[in-house]
Amino acid sequence: MHKEQHLKSSEFISDIVIGMSDGLTVPFALAAGLSAAVTSNTIVITAGVAEIIAGCIAMGLGGYLAGKTEQDHYESELRREYEEVEKVPEKEMEEVKEIFAAYGVDDAGQELIVQQLAKNKDHWVDFMMKFELGLEKPDVNRARNSAITIGLAYCVGGFLPLSAYFFTNHPHDGLAVSAVITTFCLFIFGYFKSKVTGQPALTGALKVTAIGLLAAGAAFLIARLIS
Amino acid sequence: MHKEQHLKSSEFISDIVIGMSDGLTVPFALAAGLSAAVTSNTIVITAGVAEIIAGCIAMGLGGYLAGKTEQDHYESELRREYEEVEKVPEKEMEEVKEIFAAYGVDDAGQELIVQQLAKNKDHWVDFMMKFELGLEKPDVNRARNSAITIGLAYCVGGFLPLSAYFFTNHPHDGLAVSAVITTFCLFIFGYFKSKVTGQPALTGALKVTAIGLLAAGAAFLIARLIS
């Protein structure tokens, strides 16, 4: 029960991290790049909003499809394991033995485990799913929740850097304010991300900030080169 | 050996899918949105290239960090399991028994497995890593390979829709050609993605195409609304 809860909350956090990492970085970098090339904040805002909408939908629905695929995959493997246990039980028993042989369990031990597992087909299939294939039963609401969380996180992440262009009059000023806001947000985000994933928080914060600024710097330079 | 190979190739494919899904969708949608708002292909191309560079770096380095984090996490859990096996072996033995009790193995069977596992600390820790924590030892080159694959896939995916704006003279024409190219590429990509992940290929292709067109349509409408 506790473990299950832990798993769900970590999926939620991982979805926020997925959405917000890209959301804070890509629209910021795009706006920075355009600031090197155009003189109107409206174009930067238009492109930025278009990017955020596109990214939000693409990543959100992408997360939905990924969740659905994971579930379909689990169910098709589950059916296959039930079939194999039914049709070729000797082969499946051999596979169980091999799993334990790899951990130094002797023949008698392997035989004993196999006989006990084979008594109940549900237990046996559950065991093969987890220990042979490494698959956990996915949460039925995972795909939907994942889509919403990733999409919203991307939106929130994207509007923070873009907001600077709303209350400035020239892309150069917008970029300066946006860089300050985004550096601050990337650092805070990197800090909490590292905390929840159990990484050194300060190093993690610096890494995340560096990636964001690097992406924006590269976009800025290349856009200046083109225009 | 075969399983290991299967795992690596599926990680490679999964990285291509991650990079290309977003690469084919977001720059296309951004260009579509801008085409509703500006009259110069140069701005669309500048914004598109800036987005592709930013996305490529953000996603590539993001993949790198994710891979590194996975590895650090594995190593810190490994150290903890070695410590626990050393300091509180009775507690770890209880945990092994609980794992097997859940699958209907009786007391005598649990005891036998525990005794055999405990004979070799490396085997025992490996067992706990995989069966208690569900962690597989990550490939040492995973982070670097993942970064390169995701970044390149994003670039390739992004330049396909953008190419239309290079050989047309007005964003409206660019958008029309880009939509044709991208619909075609999304369909092909969705088809192969579904094939390799074992999903129904035609349905999968249609889903991927629909997401891309939906994102682009939304970006187009909202950009038109703003400008």
Task: Report a brief summary of the structure.
Chain A has 227 residues and is mainly α. Chain A has helices at residues 2-35, 41-87, 89-101, 107-117, 121-132, 142-162, 171-196, 201-226.
Overview of the structural elements:
The structure is a homodimer of 227-residue chains. With 227 residues, the first copy, chain A, is an all-alpha fold. Chain A has one domain. Chain A has helices at residues 2-35, 41-87, 89-101, 107-117, 121-132, 142-162, 171-196, 201-226. In chain A, helix 1 packs parallel to helix 6, helix 2 (41-87) crosses helix 3 (89-101) and helix 2 runs antiparallel to helix 6 (142-162). The longest helix of chain A is centred in the first third of the chain and has 47 residues, at 41-87. Chain A starts with a helix and ends with a helix. The interface between A and B is large, with 71 and 71 residues. Chains A, B: It is a multi-pass membrane protein.
